[in-house]
Write a sequence for this structure.
């Protein structure tokens, strides 16, 4: 293992429309992030790590996962969006099960199925998406995990990993630059002191917003070129 920390830049080709609900969205009205956030990327890495190596470390799982989770949590991640993005806005009318029916007064008639209207956004990404991670001395392991990721955001939002465009450098290839960025996207990330038990859905411990999951502004080199009630068109600068 190389003890010198390096940065890894990986490239993906979007295959389908992309959608990732913003952290401040509601279940009925959800705007989408324009690109995957560091939190979404780290959770994808953690998922692949558990699926590929978790069964091999059952005897000392807690010790192993805490150590592995720490280096993924501490990664610094930068995202370079594709050359062009089109955000499509859609509204849907549907019927859903009202979960409050289970707690309602059983002596009165209830209507478990309700009519609802939801707002969603889908993003068409034209070009390639680049992700720069560092600093770490686990480049080989990190690259193997990235090679297994085939979607970000909602399931079905597929991305094709491009192995011939991966690069290892001593410095980050790109960083957010507020002086050359026209678009701000809230970027959620893992808190510096959070633990695996806080993000584990089977744990009784709950993650706290602004502590275990932090939100900070992300500057994207995108300029809004056209907009209407149905779409937004962005171009990378």
């Amino acid at each position: 293992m190389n003890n010198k920390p390096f940065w890894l830049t990986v490239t993906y080709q979007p295959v389908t429309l992309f959608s990732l609900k913003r952290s401040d969205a509601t279940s009925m009205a959800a705007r989408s992030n324009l690109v995957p956030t560091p939190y979404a990327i780290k959770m994808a890495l953690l998922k692949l790590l558990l699926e590929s190596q978790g069964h091999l470390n059952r005897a000392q799982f807690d010790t192993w996962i805490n150590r592995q989770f720490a280096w993924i949590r501490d990664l610094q991640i930068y995202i370079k969006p594709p050359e062009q993005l089109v955000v499509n806005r859609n509204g849907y009318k549907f019927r859903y099960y009202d979960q409050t029916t289970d707690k309602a007064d059983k002596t009165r008639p209830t209507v478990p199925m309700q009519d609802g209207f939801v707002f969603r956004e889908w993003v068409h990404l034209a070009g390639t998406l680049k992700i720069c991670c560092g600093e770490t001395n686990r480049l080989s392991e990190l690259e193997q995990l990235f090679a297994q990721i085939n979607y970000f955001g909602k399931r079905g939002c597929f991305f094709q990993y491009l192995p011939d465009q991966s690069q290892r450098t001593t410095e980050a290839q790109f960083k957010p630059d507020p002086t050359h960025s026209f678009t701000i996207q809230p970027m959620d990330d893992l808190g510096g002191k959070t633990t695996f038990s806080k993000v584990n859905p089977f744990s009784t411990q709950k993650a706290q917003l602004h502590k275990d999951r932090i939100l900070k502004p992300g500057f994207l080199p995108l300029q809004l070129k056209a907009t209407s009630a149905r779409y937004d068109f962005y171009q990378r600068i």
